[in-house]
Amino acid sequence: MSKSRMELLERLLADWPAKILSLAGAIALSYFYQINKLEERPMSVPLVVVTNDDFVPASQYPRTVRLVLRGESNAIYAVLEGDIEATLDLRGYTGAGVWRVPVRVEKRGSALGIDPLEISVDPSDVAVSIEPRVVKEIPVVPSFRGYLEPGFELAGFRLSPAKMEVAGPSSVMDELADAATEPIELTGRSDNFELRTKVQLRDPLLVLLSANVVDFSAEVKKALVYRNFQGLELGYVGLRDGLALLAADATGAATGAARVAASSAELEAFTPGPGLLEADLSDVERPGVYAVAVSPRFPAGFDVETWSPMVQNVTVVASDDAAVRGVDSEEAPQ
After folding, report:
1. Which domains does the chain have, with CATH numbers?
2. Whether the Cβ atoms of residue 312 and residue 252 lie closer than 8 Å to each other
3. Which end of the chain is more exposed for a tag (fewer CB within 10 A), N or C?
């Protein structure tokens, strides 16, 4: 080896510990410089809970977690929120109790291949109670909001499907009796209507095992008020020429009564008059004593619940006989 090369090597090896320390310091300074250039980006993502088929959460837990992404500015702000998933994995927990479970963070899509990228999560773990999973079928009930138009009432309704399957922790399922729909608006309605609505579970720990949509149909009718009418004059129609109504039989009644239902407005505007109870004599062909049916003749919109008499005894004579007895057809009860 030449003398010049020996001198160069000696100079390089001279004070080598100091030179190595200087190199390490330079590397450290470069690292810290790069670290100081990194920026932070806060982000909230849903907390996805994964369970097995036998046990499910029985206590409330955070629905979202807060992440902080640390890296180069242009890289971390290019990460989509859907490309980082936070998971609470309960598949390995096969006994009831309270467990502290770590929150796992998984990078996907745009978050892959970014270096450097640090991700911190808050909370880093979650205490959750676990109970056996129970499945049962419960009825669906409608939830209403508002009021129908004045004078109308909900006469009936139908839900399809009428029942749904729900799964959840045993302690919650023991208390669960039904599932309610989203509020169904009644305001301003006065006719039958149909709509599609969703089912709302009151507890977020419960899960519907079928579609959460039901078909609802409602029957709307006038709100009826009942009223009794007394002393209604009986009317007689259809008597043939040559015959006359002598008089009501002694066992019959000259007046009647009826119990009717109608809206309050219709009843307030109604004044009873003749002809509301009517006996049809068109089938009477000759003089005699007859039991004839009495029918109600109230205006449209009135529902006649009951009336009396339903049958009236009458005596029919020839017109000449009526005159001999001093009772002509015009004086007979009408």
Report:
1. 37-131 (2.170.120.30), 133-222 (2.170.120.40), 225-324 (2.170.120.30)
2. yes
3. N
**For residue 248, which of 286, 282, 294 has the smallest C-alpha distance?**
294
User: How is residue 116 written in tokens?
Assistant: 């450097």
- The CA-based angle 68-69-72, given to 5 degrees, is 145
What is the model's pTM? Answer: 0.59
SS3 32: helix
In three-state form (DSSP H/G/I as H, E/B as E, the rest C), the secondary structure along 255-313 is EEEEEEEECHHHHHCCCCCCCCEEEECCCCCCCEEEEEEEEECCCCCCEEEEEECCEEE
**257, two tokens:** 């009564």
| Helix, strand and coil percent figures for the chain, each rounded to 5 | 20, 50, 35
Provide the CA 247 distance to its chain's centre, in angstroms. Answer: 63
Per-residue confidence of the chain (334 residues) as pLDDT tens digits? Answer: 555 666 655 665 556 566 566 666 555 555 544 545 689 999 999 999 999 999 999 999 999 999 999 998 888 888 888 899 999 999 999 899 999 999 999 998 888 888 888 999 999 999 999 999 999 999 999 999 999 998 888 999 999 999 999 999 999 999 999 999 999 999 999 999 999 999 999 899 999 998 899 999 999 988 888 999 999 999 999 999 889 887 654 444 578 999 999 888 888 899 998 889 999 999 998 999 999 999 999 998 899 999 999 999 999 998 876 544 444 444 444 4
Contact 183/196 with Cβ under 8 angstroms? Answer: no
Return the half-sphere exposure (C-beta side, CA atoms, 13 A cut-off) of residue 314: 30
Residue spans of beta strands (DSSP E) within 90-206 = 97-107, 117-122, 125-145, 152-160, 163-169, 179-185, 193-200
Tokens 């007895």 — which residue?
Answer: 325
H or E segment to which residue 20 belongs: helix 16-37
Residue of 255, 222, 240 lying closest to 287 (CA atoms): 240
